[in-house]
Amino acid sequence: MRRMLTGTCVAAVLGLSLTSCTQDVVGLSVPPTPTGLAYQLQPSGDPNAPSGILLSWDPVADANLEAYNVYSRASASDAWGLRGTTTSPTFHDSGVPDLDYYVTAVNTDGGESDPSDYVEVDERLRLEAPDSLTSISLNGAIHLSWTDNAYQAAPTGFDYYRVYSASYDLDNNVCGTDWALEGTTVSPEFLVGVLTNGVPRCFGVSAISVEGFESLWSPLRYDTPRPDGHNILLYTQAGSSVQSGFRFFRDLNNDHLAEPGELGIVGSASDTSMDLILTTDGGGNLLLTPQRTGDSLRAYVNGPIGNLTDIDVAPVGGYSSAPLLATPEWGYVVQMNGGDGYYRYGSLRLSAVGSNYVIFDWAYQTDPGNPELVRMR
After folding, report:
1. Could you give the CA distance from residue 1 to residue 4 in angstroms, rounded to a whole number?
2. pTM, 2 dp
3. How far is CA 140 from CA 200, 261, 363, in A?
4. 97, 198, 263, 355: which could join 53 in a potential S-S bond, CB 3.0 to 4.6 Å?
5. What sign has the CA pseudo-torsion 180, 185, 188, 194?
6. Residues in a beta bridge with 270
7. Number of independent structural domains in the chain
8. Which H or E run includes 68?
9. What pLDDT digit, counting tens, does each position of 220-240 carry?
10. Could you give the CA distance from residue 293 to residue 344 in angstroms, rounded to a whole number?
11. Structure confidence at residue 171 (pLDDT)
12. Can you tell me the distance from the alpha carbon of 316 to that of 304, in angstroms, rounded to the nearest whole number?
């Protein structure tokens, strides 16, 4: 004869353990006990408040199966209570989950199985937070990278990373509260795209365990995308009089917005509005020479750099209106007076230097007073 778990026996079980405890009931049958109970937390961005928990278990093979009952308790000292009923071998519990859960099967006769093994939502399974977070300013995008210590500390417990962003108040040096999920990744890097140039954003990263526990966040990092250009050809005036000057931004529409056609302008060295012109000295060396009133120039470092993106933040000082030798693979920063109390900065890296021309990549920060290639006066 099959058995069902009576109310008296359930109380005894719930107060002590989940070992088998049944009594004979004439005329009733009970389904097999559910097995394989597991859980997956749903991260919310707050490590202490997941948005919910998804329970799953192996389906019970019983032709008379009607539903599953899900029981939970908030702490080990609390009594178990019915959390919900479902007809599928999964159950979603919204909000902050309870500590423990177990499942029973119920058939059409009203018989209820023995409890499954219970699962404990054990916060000790939470991973380490990423130790550091760095970024690279790009055109309409930001590249993020961080230390992979969460994975390295628990390779079998690691699942993926979550990347968040919010607005950033440059004047008050504070991140906004409108945090949004940018995406997820299993690698310690992420490209945040479709951003507006000149608008700063704040970023943070968390690590998610295979159970869905979310770590504390990495240190926060702010960055600002900015327009750039590649493979610009600039001649000396003798080489091409109409292609010997360069200006990062010219506000043709007088709307203070950097728009296509207003950025990366190549023109004549005779145009005094050019930021830089390419000249030569008495020995035939090519020189980058500031031209527009209020512009000044410096080498980013005293040596070559690997990429334009190595110039992340404009140096504080060391600028001069004197020409500088055009050297292959060197980076340069141009300081420009915006006329509104703020400096604006552009950067360039020379990829090639010929007998009467240079080829370079450039970047320009459109946001006044922004330290990503901009320093406030």
Report:
1. 10
2. 0.83
3. 11, 16, 12
4. 97
5. negative
6. none
7. 3
8. strand 65-73
9. 999 999 999 999 999 998 999
10. 13
11. 84
12. 19
